[in-house]
Design brief:
CATH class of the largest domain: Alpha Beta
CATH topology of the largest domain: Pseudouridine synthase
CATH superfamily of the largest domain: Pseudouridine synthase
Mean pLDDT: 93
Strand content: 15-25%
Shape: extended
Number of helices: 12
Low-confidence stretches: none
Structural class: alpha+beta
Number of domains: 3
Distance between the termini: 55 Å
CATH architecture of the largest domain: 2-Layer Sandwich
Number of strands: 19
Helix content: 25-40%
């Protein structure tokens, strides 16, 4: 191992290992409570980031930095070397300060920024193509021709329109003359007048045709000149597209990941069987795959991992400074499935069924529908790996009836759910949800004190394509999402609120609570947008709708147990 690589590891004192102990199994990377050793390592890394002076990167934590604000995910990996010594490696997602060369952090799986690399050489060609496209787009002759085409097109439309108006007047005048002469002339004389009027009509149509043909020829000549420029731009864009695709494919093959058994697998091979079919942008650049790659390549045994966010909160997603987060699902899950193959790992909590004590209470039932009080931790419908759910429990007790859930609650959310017993009832109540005539109220415990008494949150939401089921705030493509809220109680560190969702987007209440443009206070126990706890403190407490048969409004309320 090169000396520079040896310097990338930080060693724990034996006293720390004796006091804290070692993890029994490797961290389940998509849901975890950081092991004490990873907390120590993260604290040391954060101290380094706070005190270092050589890293010219704008994390958005101070106002004296120039350039774009780019927060980063950093990771630590606790490892054991061949001699049994325990230490940790540090890594970050993507480039840092525009480079991959940082002695403190493990290198990327493949450094595309090394001098004279095929990536930089090909990128230079692509950049040259971009410059050619830009040069054509700002060319004075090209822009003058485009302006001429727009101007002449407008003039042609106006001139033809004016002529058509005049020809319409001419037609009306000919009609009047026909009526006048028809009653005053004999048949022979009127025939001469009619023939003259027909000649005038034909002449008008000929004039219109000649004008249209003249403009068509004029515009086609200008359009042909513009098309020469457009054709060059299109050809360059096609070349750029082909080169970019080829470069990306070459990069995918260069990103090759090791696992415990020493088996290597490329990004292309890893993502081919997934729903993506191909690696998403940035795959392989996250902290944990980099850390594992370095560990396997240098003979270290991975023991535990943790990732935390460093920097200002991004505008679209929920990321808090210094807070720990799981590895991203879309980019990292397929990679880590290969890299962690054969390693003893903490249990996946998503595969754990709800406790038997989590009772599903039937609040109301008649021959048409049920209303149940779902406990926290129970799924609404079966998952890929867990069958236990509201649906399966009801199906086991309803005789010859297929339960039809009208809506769903997140697994961690407790509270009221409506279940139809027939397709007709399901359709009727679902329409009330779509028409927003259903009245719903949730209770949530927020992780900080909210000074305001009430308000309304409007933050459009869209799914995170690479990290489902997480949502993003997006003012361009997001769907309208509105929540009314009101404070009902405060403690020293928390606030209990009522939420009225006026729209029904996925994770709407959780996002509106956690986002800095919302309440900036994640719901207690929100493992996706905040910090995990014994449960998600969100409860669907009140529900009111029109009964599909009696046509009377019925209401239900079940208090929260927190």
């Amino acid at each position: 191992m090169a000396n520079s690589d040896q310097n990338r590891i930080s060693w724990f004192p034996d006293s720390v290992i004796s006091e804290v102990g070692l993890p029994e199994r490797f961290t389940f990377p998509f849901y975890y409570e950081p092991h004490p050793l990873t907390k120590i390592a993260a604290a040391e890394l954060q101290h380094y980031l706070e005190t270092q002076t050589d890293l010219d990167h704008n994390f958005g934590l101070t106002t004296d930095k120039e350039g774009y604000v780019i927060g980063k995910m950093f990771g630590v990996l606790v490892v054991r070397d061949r001699d049994g010594k325990i230490g940790y490696l540090s890594g970050c997602s993507g480039k840092l300060a525009g480079t991959n060369d940082h002695p403190k952090f493990v290198p990327p799986v493949f450094d595309m920024l090394t001098e004279n690399s095929f990536f930089l050489k090909e990128q230079e060609i692509i950049d040259a193509i971009n410059r050619q496209i830009e040069a054509i787009q700002v060319d004075q002759n090209y822009n003058s021709l485009k302006w001429d085409m727009e101007r002449l097109s407008a003039e042609s439309l106006q001139e033809i329109s004016d002529l058509k108006k005049q020809l319409k007047i001419n037609k009306e005048l000919r009609g009047k003359r026909r009526e006048e002469q028809k009653n005053n002339l004999d048949q022979a004389s009127y025939a001469l007048v009619e023939a003259d009027l027909v000649r005038q009509s034909n002449h008008d149509q000929w004039v219109l045709k000649m004008l249209a043909d003249d403009w068509k020829q004029c515009l086609e000549e200008v359009r042909a000149k513009v098309a020469q420029f457009d054709g060059r731009i299109e050809a360059l864009k096609n070349e750029r597209k082909e080169r970019s695709a080829a470069l990306q494919g070459q990069l995918f093959e260069q990103y090759s990941f090791l696992n415990k058994a020493g088996k290597s697998k490329s990004l292309h091979d890893i993502f081919s069987p997934t729903a993506f079919g191909r690696p998403p942008a940035g795959a392989g650049e996250c902290a944990t795959p980099k850390l594992l790659q370095f560990a396997f390549a240098n003979g270290y045994e991975p023991l535990a991992m943790a990732e935390f966010w460093w920097g200002a909160t991004p505008r679209s997603e929920i990321r808090k400074h210094k807070q720990f987060y799981p590895a991203c699902a879309g980019k990292c899950k397929p990679i880590l499935a290969h890299m962690l193959e054969g390693m003893p790992m903490d249990e996946n909590p998503f595969l754990q069924p709800a406790e038997d004590s989590a009772c599903l209470e039937i609040v109301y039932e008649d021959e048409y529908l049920l209303v149940v009080n779902k406990p926290a931790g129970l799924r609404s419908v079966p998952g890929i790996d867990i069958n236990d759910s509201v649906y399966t429990r009801l199906k086991s007790i309803l005789v010859n009836i297929e339960p039809l859930l009208v809506h769903r609650l997140d697994m961690g959310t407790s509270g009221l759910l409506v279940v139809a017993k027939t397709a007709e009832v399901h359709k009727h109540i679902q329409k009330q949800f779509l028409d927003r005539t259903i009245s719903k109220r949730y209770t949530a415990l927020l992780s900080k004190v909210i000074d305001r008494a009430d308000g309304e949150i409007r933050l459009p939401l869209t799914p995170d394509p690479y990290n489902r089921p997480l949502q993003l705030v997006c003012f361009e493509t997001g769907k309208k999402s509105i929540t009314r809220w009101k404070v009902v109680a405060r403690t020293e560190n928390t606030t209990k609120v009522h939420f009225w969702p006026l729209t029904g987007r996925t994770h709407q209440l959780r996002m509106h609570a956690a986002h800095e443009l919302g309440l900036n206070a994640p719901i207690v126990g929100d493992d996706l947008y905040g910090t995990a706890d014994k449960r998600l403190y969100l409860h669907a407490a009140y529900l009111s709708f029109v009964h599909p048969k009696t046509k009377e409004r019925i209401s239900f309320e079940v208090g929260e147990d927190f």
